[in-house]
Design a protein that fits this description.
globular, 12 strands, alpha/beta, Spore Coat Polysaccharide Biosynthesis Protein SpsA, Chain A, two-stranded antiparallel ribbon
């Protein structure tokens, strides 16, 4: 069983420059003048017993004009890491070569499926690279994590690709250990959270799935930075680029719609040590608003389609199901008003206005203009076509030459 581990690493302009209009928004990209968390993540691989896999680092820049410097930065980090496995670098220069190949082959239209901007597009590249390397399994990890369990890779391989009690195990999620060693998300309580019960719902779901037996069970949530995906899924179902964040759980929803089960292994853990988020609370809430409204619309716009499975919000209870139901707008309005008051009390008029703006956005901009379910069907068909085309030996061979340049 050939396995590829893929770690995307997000980088931004130098600290003195900061974010510019038009730059991509990620939770905590590393400024180019900082060391970041990537080296720590790669070096933690030394703790793993099973090292018979390839490691690919995807260099993601927040802006096109810093892409070359980001690749250089990631390359130098890889060179100094010495994790004991083969390490490949994939960045914007490699993607341009792939786009060029697709154009020469008369398949320019597929280039839109392979992009280096946005969480979902980056996750799709994680799966695409694994596919080109002819891997049976892709292990998706993030660069703000460290391995602590020496048996992680043996656990990651243990169930994937097997049939258990008549169910094909083609997607397995692990979970995050927080800095304190537990799996609960601990955030300081604020009054606006009583109407936006994200963390309490998450922890309830974690207790039901992570904190109980059996070891392997169906799950309503997954973690994008600890995910094991078999090629039977990653060549068929893509991440949806129309989802700005929470792309991992959206991928679970997509997979279920196409008839695949997703399981969580409550022994497959990785330590999550994220830096402080750089964006204000109102912006994070806004991105969640876009995400949940879009996902709910995708569920509500389902049609009866041969080969697809209809899913319902309560299938994802307690989280994210609580944000996929008819009371979503009332949650948004109540939470945004209280958050606005909190900003005012702090003397932050702009933050207050932006919090209130979330209510309007939920009724206007966040509402999909086109049918999300139909868009997913078109996206899935084209993704499957791309994967079939690039599986052709002569095409895969050329793509391998682009990707397989060890740093």
């Amino acid at each position: 069983m050939k396995v590829t581990m893929v770690i995307p690493s997000y980088w931004a302009r130098e600290t003195g420059t900061g974010w510019k209009q038009g730059d991509a928004i990620y939770d905590h990209p590393t400024p180019l003048d900082k060391a970041g968390t990537l080296l720590r993540a790669i070096q933690s691989i030394k703790k793993l017993k099973g090292k018979d896999f390839q490691l690919v680092i995807i260099a993601v820049a927040t802006a096109e004009d810093i892409e070359a410097r980001v690749e250089d930065k990631v390359a130098s980090t890889i060179e100094s890491s010495n994790p004991g496995v083969e390490v490949l670098l994939f960045g914007a220069s490699h993607l341009r070569q792939i786009h060029g190949l697709l154009m020469r082959e008369g398949k320019k239209g597929y280039s839109a499926l392979l992009q280096l901007r946005g969480y979902s597009n980056v996750r799709n590249l994680c799966m695409f690279v694994s596919h080109i390397l002819n891997s049976e399994v892709a292990v998706l990890i993030d660069d703000d994590e460290v391995f602590e369990d020496p048996e992680f890779m043996s656990k990651a391989r243990e169930f994937i690709g097997r049939d258990i009690e008549g169910k094909a195990i083609n997607a397995v999620a692990g979970y995050y250990l927080q800095p304190d060693g537990g799996y609960h998300v601990k955030k300081p309580y604020r009054p606006w959270m009583q109407h936006w019960d994200q963390y309490s719902s998450m922890n309830k779901a974690f207790d039901e799935v992570i904190g109980s037996e059996p070891r392997l069970k169906d799950t309503p949530f997954v973690f994008g930075g600890n995910m094991v995906v078999h090629r039977d899924i990653f060549t068929v179902v893509p991440f949806d680029p129309d989802v700005p964040r929470g792309e991992d759980i959206d991928f679970l929803i997509n997979a279920k719609m196409f008839g695949y089960s997703f399981f969580l292994d409550n022994q497959l853990s990785i330590k999550h040590l994220p830096p402080q988020k750089a964006h204000p609370v109102w912006r994070s809430l806004r991105e969640d608003i876009y995400r949940f409204i879009y996902e709910r619309a995708k569920i509500e716009s389902q049609k009866e389609v041969k080969g697809m499975t209809r899913v319902y919000p309560d299938m994802f209870d307690p989280y994210p199901g609580c944000f996929l139901k008819h009371d979503l707008e009332s949650k948004i309005e109540s939470a945004s008003k209280l958050l606005s008051e909190e900003y005012l009390a702090q003397g932050d008029k702009e933050g207050s206005e932006e919090a209130l703006k979330n209510i309007t956005i939920a009724r206007t901009e966040a509402v999909p203009k086109l049918d999300p379910f139909q868009k997913l069907r078109v996206l899935q068909r084209r993704w499957h076509e791309l994967m079939s085309f690039t599986a052709r030996e002569e095409i895969r061979s050329q793509l391998n030459e682009i990707i397989c340049k060890e740093v």
